[in-house]
Write a sequence for this structure.
């Protein structure tokens, strides 16, 4: 029998009551960082290609890569590499059937976030 109140009920999960979880946010961020790494990779490829084309072309692209924008893209790519790596390790751990409890998953999510920031800072300081 058709539900006569169907049009009066909110959709599930309703946006006004749904609260994103850390695990879903980190999962989405893993996908975003994986795609964002293409920007840094393309910048490096263009940099290498410009070196093969001509000294003038290399000077122009090298100016972009060594500018504040290039530094921002490279540091962002470095963070994305660390984040994506740690999130991948977390997923490998989950694939063994361990760490799926809510408390453990929360700790692993914060570990990926904090670990990626710390490892990025250490890499920038060392290099």
């Amino acid at each position: 029998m058709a539900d006569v109140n169907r049009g009066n009920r909110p959709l599930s999960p309703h946006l006004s009551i749904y609260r994103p979880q850390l695990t879903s946010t980190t999962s989405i961020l893993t996908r975003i960082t994986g795609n964002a790494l293409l920007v840094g990779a393309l910048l490096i490829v263009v940099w290498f290609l410009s070196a093969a084309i001509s000294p003038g072309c290399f000077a122009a692209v090298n100016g972009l890569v060594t500018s504040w924008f290039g530094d921002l893209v490279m540091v962002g790519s470095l963070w994305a590499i660390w984040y994506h790596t740690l999130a991948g390790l977390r997923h490998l751990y989950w694939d063994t059937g361990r760490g799926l409890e809510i408390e453990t998953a929360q700790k692993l999510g914060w570990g990926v976030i904090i670990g990626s920031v710390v490892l990025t800072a250490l890499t920038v300081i060392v290099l």
The CA atoms of residues 21 and 35 lie 22 Å apart. The chain has a mean pLDDT of 90. The chain has one domain: 21-126. The two ends are 68 Å apart (CA to CA).
